[in-house]
Structure formats: structure tokens, C-alpha cells
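JOB MANIFEST
job_type = single_chain_structure
chain_count = 1
residues = 93
[input]
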Amino acid sequence: MAAKNDDITETLIEFPCDFPIKVMGETHADFTAEIIKTIQTVMPNFDVRNVEMRGSSGGKYISLTCTVHVTSKPQLDNIYRALTSHPMVKVVL
């Protein structure tokens, strides 16, 4: 379904959908738990089984791919805002 031309929040994503979000930061024992907790502030039912973890070759950084089931652009935007404002997060894609 296409958004209206005058819609400021126009998007090519069709909702609801499963949407992968990549979150990167320095390796830390609590990083994964913090990211899950942050997503759950927006989506309380976020399932931790939807997280894939990968470390950098040097071990300094960690990357999480969190697949969220979102129902609207505002919900997805809220998740991105929560993640990008977290002090442990370096990059969100």
C-alpha cells in the first residue's frame, strides 16, 4: 500500500512486517541484555530468540541483528530512537 503524496512520513515499508535492525557497539557483558531491554520499552513482547549476535574479528565490537515485528512506522521510529539514544550503542542500521 503506497502512502499519500502529502504524507510527511511516507515509507516504502508495508506494515505489519518483520524488520531486521542491526545494532552495533563495543563488546560488553551487558550489551545484549541492554539492547533487548531497550527494545522491550517500546515492544514489551519482543522475543529474545529474534536476536542474532556476531562479534568483530578483533573482538572489540559486537553486532546484534534484532528482528522486530512492527505494525507501524511510528512504532519502528520509536525503536530506532530508543536504540540510538542508548549510551552503549555506536551504530543502528
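[summary]
Strands lie at 17-26, 51-55, 61-70, 89-92.
The first strand starts at residue 17 and ends at 26.
exit_status = 0
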